[in-house]
Amino acid sequence: MALKRVLLKLSGEALSNNLSLISTSSLFRTVNEIKLATACKVQLAIVIGAGNIWRGADKFIDRVTADKMGMIATVMNALALNDSLSKIGIKSKIFSANGVSGFVEDFQYDKVIKHLEHGYIVIFAGGTGNPFFTTDTTAALRAAEIKADLLLKATRVDGVYDTDPKKNSNAIRFDYLTFKEALNKRLEIMDAEAFSLCMQTNISVIVFNFYEDGNLQRIVSGKKIGTLVEA
Question: pLDDT under 70 in the chain at which residues?
Fold first, then answer.
């Protein structure tokens, strides 16, 4: 089945490098990967994280406060991504779960769908709008709301393994898993809330290496990349 609408979950690290929280070179690479994917005529929405800006703040700041700061940081990343997309001729629009007057629009379902259908990339910022929920959960929630055919989780590894492949050279990679198998094996794919929501709404997830050039385009064009998790 051809994909009509896809949600991509990007971490904040997709915009950064070891020297800068928001890196020109990383931004350039990320938006060009997105541009390649748009050639496949798929409607694309993106949830952006903020780990590059506010990693681990809850260790020394109250969790609710830290989560609110993280939500603001996702807006900063969304603005950087939106501006960079415009520089390469890609139309995009930011919607946030929290009102950030003068910077981005509040999430409105009808407007989101209208922009997707008119060829815009929609960027979701502000998380779910509530503390204690990760941007993985935001991705699952937005994917369900916009009726995405697929949720793509961009990572630095080429799929899901039984153990950490960076620590165990004998780690076994899975090409395919059911949600039930992933839960039984306690595999760290997404947080529990996100995973549960994907199961309930029957939205398949592909975990893939975003940092291998062309992988995003390959997936949206129908090639088998990464690990597929489905009901």
Answer: 1, 56-59
Q: Tell me what pLDDT residue 19 has.
A: 78
Instruction: Compute the chain's Rg from CA coordinates.
Output: 17
Question: In the numeric block, which tokens belong to residue 180?
Answer: 């039930």
Q: What share of the chain is helix, strand, coil (3-state, %, to 5)?
A: 40, 20, 40
The predicted structure's pLDDT at residue 195: 85
Q: What is the pLDDT of residue 213?
A: 96
For residue 51, which of 28, 30, 32, 67 has the smallest C-alpha distance? 67
Residue 130, burial from CB neighbour count under 10 angstroms (0-12, 13-18, 19+): middle
Handedness of CA 158, 160, 165, 166 (dihedral sign): positive
All domains of the chain in start order, with CATH: 5-230 (3.40.1160.10)
Q: Describe the crossing of helices 63-87 and 24-38 by its angle, rounded to 10 degrees.
A: 70
> Could you give the CA distance from residue 153 to residue 189 in angstroms, rounded to a whole number?
9
